[in-house]
């Protein structure tokens, strides 16, 4: 049985307690994880705070910080397969996806490595004579980075990369549902040669670890990815330290297909848009909004493809859909489908858990055209469940797309360029993909609006968000400063 440890102040340490981690494909315990309670959290934050103030880190040039990040990126690329296997074992995410995603994670670190010495201040054309005024860009301080279990190496890279490029230090809390990939990542980080305490990796539960971390007086910024309910706790918990927050939350993203679309492309994009990562993806295109004119033909094609998906062991290269990460998600899927059927929705494919060991739930398509208020239309499920709605006019399509409290991603399939532009303007979301879906890049900001949160990850702005400006005023006159209380 594997035994993992925390990484605090450059040391590998046991937690105050331990807990078991199960392989979702077998439901068997495969590793013991350290559990951070208050004393471990405090030690991690103290280490990050000390590192932030240390001459080793604070005095390091931005170029040198960049070089360390490049070294880290190389280590990730060299060890991508090992990380992928561990992530697959702990989360159930299929090996095809973890291998490809982790290899690409290295590119995110490279992007931020290159940016480290391009974060510039500014000189201000001030309206006062004999004054020079400029802005320094300084790191915000100690960052609490909190991630959910899906795609943790990716979701942490878009926090750790820009934060370290900007000169911050970080305490990363890995998800208790599958912390192994992040604890293994800490080993590579250690080899990269950063000063001790610059990154600390812990794991634990929401109330006993996450809440202590986000309330800590030495935390300056909280970068959170997870669900909206947890985000509300975090905002309340940060009422004392008044840390700034960036929140990457859930989604219920519309996938709109017009009658003039390239149907085969749209079907393939929809299949990967909802069933990749077994649907456990914040940007999942979970609401298909389809033109009435092509609905029947499109659904028939989609059903054939969905039912042909290879469901199996996540560590098998032929598997296309693996198990869900936790058992509770399987129960949630059943409840969601049952409640949606009661509301009038009709299951077209899948719909019941598979009768085998492991948390397997098949690709599911559910027609909600007659049940637009069904729970599978209104609530994020975070699994392989696609709800279908239909429209007659473009205005109707847009209204349905925006009929959600979320606003993360969206997809539009049409060959009509003018229509595409109207939808790009009209859709309330942080990302619009036109005739494609799910594309990501280190250069492109990622994030949402409404219940999908605020703040952006990826791109140049994300690195600037880990800085604050300091306005510096320098008087250039040698004349004595006059007595302010003598009237002139
Ligand atoms: P979750 O909100 O339950 O947990 C996320 C993290 O928050 C975990 O590490 C958890 O331990 C921690 N946490 C829980 N309670 C806390 C508290 N009181 N204080 C501080 N931390 C606490 O989310 P989940 O169920 O693990 O993940 C699924 C959710 O994440 C979905 O809503 C999904 O859409 C979202 N997500 C969003 C993005 C994005 O980029 N927008 C990406 C992936 C996942």
Number of separate domains: 2
Q: How many E strands? A: 21
Bound molecules: nicotinamide-adenine-dinucleotide
CATH topology of the largest domain: Aldehyde Dehydrogenase, Chain A, domain 1
Ends distance? 82 Å
CATH top level of the largest domain?
Answer: Alpha Beta
Rg computed from alpha carbons, rounded to a whole number of angstroms: 24 Å
Whole-number average pLDDT?
97
User: What is the level-2 CATH architecture name of the largest domain?
Assistant: 3-Layer(aba) Sandwich
- The tally of helices reads 16
Strand order of the largest sheet: 15-16-17-14-13-18-19
Strand content: 15-25%
Largest sheet: 7 strands, mixed
Low-confidence stretches: none
Pick out its properties.
488 residues; alpha/beta; Aldehyde Dehydrogenase, Chain A, domain 1; Aldehyde Dehydrogenase, Chain A, domain 2; 2 domains; seven-stranded mixed β-sheet; six-stranded mixed β-sheet; 21 strands; 39% helix; binds nicotinamide-adenine-dinucleotide
């Amino acid at each position: 049985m594997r035994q993992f440890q925390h990484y605090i102040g450059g040391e590998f340490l046991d937690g105050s307690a331990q807990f078991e981690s199960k392989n979702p494909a077998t439901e068997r315990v495969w590793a013991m994880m350290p559990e951070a309670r208050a004393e471990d959290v405090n030690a991690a934050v103290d280490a990050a705070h000390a590192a932030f103030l240390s001459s080793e880190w604070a005095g390091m040039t931005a170029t040198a910080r960049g070089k360390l990040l490049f070294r880290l990126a190389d280590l990730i690329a060299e060890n991508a397969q090992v990380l992928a296997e561990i992530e697959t074992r702990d989360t159930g995410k299929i090996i095809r996806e973890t291998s490809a995603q982790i290899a690409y994670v290295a590119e995110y670190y490279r992007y931020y490595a290159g940016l480290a010495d391009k974060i510039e201040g500014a000189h201000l054309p001030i309206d006062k004579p004999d004054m020079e005024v400029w802005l320094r860009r300084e790191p915000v301080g100690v960052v609490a980075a909190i991630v959910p279990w899906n795609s943790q190496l990716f979701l942490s890279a878009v926090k750790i990369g820009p934060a370290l490029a900007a000169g911050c230090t970080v305490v990363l809390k890995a998800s208790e549902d599958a912390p192994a990939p992040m604890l293994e990542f800490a080993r590579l980080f250690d080899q990269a040669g950063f000063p001790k305490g610059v990154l600390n990796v812990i794991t634990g539960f929401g109330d006993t670890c996450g809440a202590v971390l986000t309330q800590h007086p030495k935390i300056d910024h909280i970068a959170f990815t997870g669900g909206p309910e947890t985000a509300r706790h975090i905002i309340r918990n940060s009422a004392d330290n008044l840390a700034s927050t960036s929140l990457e939350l859930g989604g219920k993203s519309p996938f709109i297909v017009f009658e003039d679309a390239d149907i085969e492309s749209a079907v393939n994009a929809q299949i990967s848009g909802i069933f990749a990562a077994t649907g456990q993806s914040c940007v999942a295109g979970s609401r298909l909004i389809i033109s009435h004119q092509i609905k029947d033909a499109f659904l028939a094609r989609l059903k054939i493809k969905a039912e042909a998906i290879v469901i199996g062991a996540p560590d098998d290269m032929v598997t296309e859909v693996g198990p869900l990460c936790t058992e509770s998600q399987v129960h949630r899927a059943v409840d969601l489908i049952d409640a949606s059927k009661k509301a009038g929705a009709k299951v077209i494919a899948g719909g019941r858990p598979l009768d085998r060991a492991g948390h397997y739930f098949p690709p599911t398509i559910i027609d909600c055209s007659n049940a637009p208020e069904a729970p599978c239309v209104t609530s994020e499920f975070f699994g392989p469940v696609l709800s279908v709605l239909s429209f007659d006019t473009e205005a109707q399509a847009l209204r349905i797309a925006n009929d959600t409290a979320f606003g993360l991603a969206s997809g539009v399939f049409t060959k009509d360029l003018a229509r595409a532009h109207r939808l790009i303007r009209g859709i309330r979301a942080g990302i619009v993909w036109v005739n494609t879906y799910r594309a990501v890049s280190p250069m492109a900001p990622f994030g949402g609006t409404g219940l999908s949160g605020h703040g952006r990850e990826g791109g140049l702005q994300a690195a600037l968000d880990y800085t604050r400006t300091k306005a510096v005023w320098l008087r250039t006159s040698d004349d004595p400063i006059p007595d302010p209380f003598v009237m002139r």
